[in-house]
Give the backbone structure.
Amino acid sequence: MRELHDILDDAAKAYYQDGCEKISNYEYDRLYDELVELERETGIVMSSSPTQKVGYEVLSSLPKERHQSPMLSLEKTKSVDTLAEWLGDKEGLLSWKLDGLTVVLSYEEGLLVKGVTRGNGEIGEVITQNVRAFDNVPCSIPFHGKLVLRGEAIIRYSDFQEINESLPEAESRYKNPRNLCSGSVRQLDPAITKKRHVRLIVFSLVSAVREDGTDMDFGNSRSKEFQFLENLGFDVVEHRLVRNSDIGDAVLFFSQRVQSNDFPSDGLVLTYEDIAYGLSLGRTAKAPKHSIAFKWSDEIRETVLRDVEWSPSRTGLINPVAIFDPVELEGSTVSRASLHNISWCEDMSLGIGDHINVYKANMIIPQIAENLSKSGGLLPPSFCPACNGKTELRKEKDVKVLFCPNPLCPAKKIKNFALFVSRDALNIDGLSEATLEKLAGHGFVKTYADIFRLGRYRDQIISLDGFGEKSFENLLSSIEEARETDLYRVIYGLGIAGIGLANAKLLCNSFDNNLEKLWAANKDSFCAIDGIGDVLAENIVHYFENDEKMTELKELLQYLRFRETPRDGKAEKKLSGKSVVITGSLRHFSNRRELEELISAAGGKATGSVSAKTAYLVNNDINSTSGKNRKAKELGIPILTEEEFIKLLE
């Protein structure tokens, strides 16, 4: 089912956003119907399912509702010995203490009927529509009684920066994933929640009552409750069964994982495996006694603030970053920390040379705990470091921020640069969005051609955080390799609206891989190409009619060499107009994309699913009983090993 989600979503994106067909309408409908049938059979319908793509009701306010039972906080400790003493001779479940927004979900007759935030523990806000927009919440489950559970709504670190920086300027100052998640979950428009990639990790089953009114029996085991929830399609918090003799090893295991986790966590939770025993202990006025929280002890170091780096972002905000004498924290050396905004700097009375205490929030994110000197006097720059344009001080939501109003500031073109160096475009390793933003913020990258001139800034770049002599040399090597490329990669990397990789190849093939012919063509010439409509044709013409873009492109061409493209080779004709499906592991190619490029060069098209239009299925395990193999055999489609397929093209 998840595989079908990916295939259908990918096909829809290609069709609606890139203007190309990855699979036929017939094949799309067939796969869609297959998904509907699987959802009917299993009773599980995920919120991310293509069958659930419906409009959302925008609310004027979030209604309030009282919880059936109070949601209490847990008692906390920072001592492993205390955890062992608390557990005694019992077994316990040790799991992550997730740092997001707690949500209560209710299901009736297999359907999600309500989602409520924790609120103040007594009264929460009803967010049912928003929960339906989470990435991984089942809207339908194969349990037709009444089910209530608790989970943590989170936004992963991998999504946090991109989402945070794409928000309107007035909203883009979320300090961490938790704050962004809270703002996303409590939106009045669920469509906004959907864009934020909120996920729910379940950490507790409150109740499960069958249709006949009897409670489910889990053998008095919390572990079995978790297994039950996993079987219903929920993502359950990672957990380990422990005794007091191995609690220290388990805490060490989690502590070693926390810094590489893609989700925010601020500690651990220990719960009695024996459900009845835990409940028999009752609760205090503030906390239940069946569980206890373990918080990481913050390691604090004193250091000296040496400088403040002002880093422009793609939203126009110029973010202050503290540079201080390096200190060891939680097993790594840190020398930088975000200062958030101008108001925060003023409240801290920061000044260069101040003695400050620093720590890692949740053992991950460096932060300044306090300013011991409070000398003050830190002044924001009057000119943007990226474009040298005049900066502005703005006050939004009672917070002062520094802003670059220049619409042409190169720091605002990070998305363009990131696409240009991506794998399907120039394929330059070592230039992530964060690195590009850093280089643009220092004024090193203002145009595409500047990427090929980074060698002139060797000393400055090597001194930047995260760089060194070796990483810089690796970057230069990757840039040098990128000089020899294919025209379609450059066309794709320019980011012309609606021109994805498939259309870029189509354009280049239609104009004999001649760039001069391509940029001199008119709208009618583009519309004559099968697969290019009026809108895409206008986008292409407008791009090549823009004097600034053409100046930048011609400057770039000085640094590139285009590969020769065969026009009449045998391989080019061998797969003309044919579709090929790849499945299973590969032996002769380092990844699936390499084989896909070979298919494309031979005039064919790599698709994701087997249909009547498929010419070949490539699978080294010809006797596999996979769905694709079975489908190919039903339709009489040849199944070839890599060796057989390569021989076919020779």
